[in-house]
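Please decode residue identities from the backbone states below.
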């Protein structure tokens, strides 16, 4: 078994050559406010420079998942797109799980947002999830 994960693909680069017809596809819909809130947290350059009151107001905990949405594909594979915090910054990532709940792929961190497209290849099968802010 092997897996290849592609972090975020900018919408302008998504073409038919990337999106194969037999690719498993899913959508996650989030609000525009959720997308904006995630981008605001990603824009913080150094969490350590925030006061405890500012961290509390933003809901920032160290080493935490701050936002998470999941999509499931017909074959049982699922993907969790989430915003995480560390000691100094936040990042977005996609984590893919097989039908039994075992992690099969993790994207590279993204610092642009949770919305957009995330892809993974696992056992010669490609999966794509589009996170759409409405």
């Amino acid at each position: 078994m092997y897996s290849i994960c592609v972090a975020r693909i900018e919408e302008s680069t998504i073409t038919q050559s990337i999106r194969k017809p037999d690719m498993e596809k899913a959508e996650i819909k989030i609000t525009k406010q959720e997308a904006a809130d995630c981008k605001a947290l990603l824009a913080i350059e150094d969490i350590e420079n925030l006061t405890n009151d500012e961290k509390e107001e933003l809901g920032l905990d160290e080493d935490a998942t701050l936002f998470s949405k999941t999509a499931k594909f017909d074959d049982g594979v699922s993907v969790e797109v989430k915003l995480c915090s560390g000691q100094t910054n936040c990042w977005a990532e996609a984590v893919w799980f097989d039908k039994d709940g075992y992690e099969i792929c993790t994207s590279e961190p993204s610092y642009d947002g949770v919305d957009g497209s995330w892809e993974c290849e696992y056992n010669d099968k490609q999966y794509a999830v589009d996170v759409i802010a409405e």
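Observation: Helices lie at 32-42, 52-58.
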